[in-house]
Design a protein that fits this description.
49% of the residues lie in helices and 20% in strands. With 269 residues, the chain is of the alpha+beta class. The protein has an eight-stranded antiparallel β-sheet with strand order 5-4-7-8-1-2-3-6, covered by helices on one side. A hairpin with a 7-residue loop joins β1 and β2.
Amino acid sequence: MSAHDAFAETLPAYAAGALDARERAAFEAHLSTCEICRAELAELSRVTAALALSVEPEAPPPALRSATLLKATSQPQARSNGARLATARRSSPLAWLLAAAALVAAVAASFLAHSLRLELQTVRDLASAAVSRAEALRAELLELRRDQVMLVRIREVMSAGDAHWVTLRGTGAATGAVGTALWSPTRGLVFSGTGLPPLDAARVYQLWVVPPSGAPQSAGLLNVNADGRAAHVTALPNVSTAALVAITIEPQGGSASPTMPIVMSGQVN
């Protein structure tokens, strides 16, 4: 057996860092004189590095690591170098098969873990999109219910025999705004307006029904959209007669009675 043959089977273990200090020193002494082993070691190192970069690292289970260490440390240490090399030579086909199988299993496990992570992220994205869509549909449903209630009230006011049409005009801060109100002593009040200027967050438009005598009665706060439009429906069971429908600008949350000048009004005919 040549010197190269005696150490050739030790090459994979050296590349994997599995030799003890004495074995490593013996092999490195041979490596300095054997061009074939140096070339094979360089190729093996290149392949190992490429495999390591091609997959994401996966930590081995603690049980596998413990079993491997136990098996490695339980081997007799007093065997001669020649006997050890002979044993390695005899078992090398099986060792290579086991190493190859372990490598394939590690690559497959890493690929499977990566695929599962991608699938899990896809499921999470789909779930998030479904939740967002459900929230949007819930908001749309609430808006439709509010619109349905408003339509029912508008129909009730319009069909009332005691309904009065009121045309409102803007003044002061709301110059140019126009609106229409339909007021019924028994069914309530419907208001629709355009051209209302935007207000800051501390103020709000408030609608009032003003009787011929006595204090004005609040008909609610107006929700004005970005283009200056507002629509409002309310019931006014405590107002039997009215002389004026008016709008003021009040502090956020509204007021029990008007605190600011009237910016929009119309007489009840």
